[in-house]
């Protein structure tokens, strides 16, 4: 519950639209709300600038729908990640206004309410190959929901490095770069050697036999010879985007 919510609540009491007892109940559940299977954090947006994100992985379709309805009632932008087909089908039926992003495996509500604050730099999301797109799109959508200008640069892996060099200006124009790659994960090291910006590397589980479901890319990125590269977990587009958002907001309101 932010200041505007509290002000509106007090006005409702003053105008007699709700009782004092109802107002007390709303304030009591403001920090978090216990649904039995989850304690949803309503104050996450006050601390981190965005409401708690729903991880669909491991939840039933019914649980995801119940959480989405809870947050929907508060009119805040909502992001649900790692949603399977069953969750997407259930949400589509129960909450028709929800936006489905099949490639990113995400669901959003009230995306049109997200505003880009002044002074925000551009985040460039780079993927090595088409197989990395689900992770890349998860990162892009997360960045957009957090209020960042985003640009995409896809399918520019080291197997055809000229594709990257032809887009060199885009690398220079970004404030933060997210590099997503499977196989041996070499793209992050290449990009890190070309720019003086923060580079967040995301290994993906894309690759043949001894890629070990992304472990080879993870180790390759951790062992990068280019300085200034940070590495998140395998397939963690969401985590990379959240970190990029934090970096992008540093110094945003500092007057020169």
From TrEMBL:
One of its GO terms (molecular function) is hydrolase activity. It comes from the Bacteria. Pfam families: AIRC. Residues 121-253 form the PurE domain. InterPro entries: P2CMN_synthase_LarB, PurE_dom. GO terms for biological process: 'de novo' IMP biosynthetic process. This is 1-(5-phosphoribosyl)-5-amino-4-imidazole-carboxylate carboxylase. It comes from Anoxybacter fermentans.
